[in-house]
């Protein structure tokens, strides 16, 4: 998701600091983003948006993301930054927090398993 939210300086700074993970002849991944042609308000919440309106808007934004050829690149950008606002790569900010928490938990479990297997091998 490339649109500038109500906090444009934060997103603009994030995009300028980001080294795209996928560049080809057409340029960085966000050059191919479907959302470049859509209204920014679809991807970022106005202040004091009612819940029903937010859910409807987010659903519409996710439908745009679903047809985007760079959705995975966009999602990874939003997770790596991490982007605190808006719909990026088909995920809301809350959904991205869940994904990040799961990744942290998985990484911690893998580190713990590696430590345990190292102790077992040393004792063997």
From TrEMBL:
Amino acids binding [4Fe-4S] cluster: 35, 65, 68, 74
Pfam families found in the cross-reference section: Whib (PF02467)
Subcellular location(s) of the protein: Cytoplasm
Domain 4Fe-4S Wbl-type: 34-98
UniProt cofactor(s): [4Fe-4S] cluster
Main location as per UniProt: cytoplasm
Cofactor descriptive note: Binds 1 [4Fe-4S] cluster per subunit. Following nitrosylation of the [4Fe-4S] cluster binds 1 [4Fe-8(NO)] cluster per subunit.
InterPro entries attached to this UniProt entry: 4FE4S_WBL (IPR034768), Whib (IPR003482)
Molecular function GO labels: 4 iron, 4 sulfur cluster binding; dinitrosyl-iron complex binding; DNA binding; metal ion binding; protein-disulfide reductase [NAD(P)H] activity
PROSITE patterns: 4FE4S_WBL (PS51674)
GO biological process terms held by the UniProt record: cell redox homeostasis; negative regulation of DNA-templated transcription
Keywords, comma-separated and alphabetical: 4Fe-4S, Cytoplasm, Disulfide bond, DNA-binding, Iron, Iron-sulfur, Metal-binding, Transcription, Transcription regulation
Modification(s) after translation: The Fe-S cluster can be nitrosylated by nitric oxide (NO). Upon Fe-S cluster removal intramolecular disulfide bonds are formed.
Function: Acts as a transcriptional regulator. Probably redox-responsive. The apo- but not holo-form probably binds DNA.
Family to which the UniProt record says this protein belongs: Belongs to the WhiB family.
Protein's name according to its UniProt entry: Transcriptional regulator WhiB
Species name: Streptomyces montanisoli
Name of encoding gene: whiB
């Amino acid at each position: 998701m490339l649109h500038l939210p109500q906090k444009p300086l934060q997103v603009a700074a994030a995009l300028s600091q980001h080294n795209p993970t996928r560049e080809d002849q057409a340029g960085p991944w966000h050059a191919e983003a479907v959302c470049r042609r859509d209204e920014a308000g679809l991807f970022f919440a106005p202040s004091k948006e009612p819940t029903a309106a937010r859910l409807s808007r987010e659903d519409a934004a996710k439908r745009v993301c679903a047809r985007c050829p760079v959705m995975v690149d966009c999602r990874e950008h939003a997770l790596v930054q991490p982007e605190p606002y808006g719909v990026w790569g088909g995920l809301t900010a809350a959904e991205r927090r869940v994904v990040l928490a799961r990744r942290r938990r998985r990484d911690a479990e893998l580190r713990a398993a590696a430590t345990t297997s190292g102790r077992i091998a040393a004792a063997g």
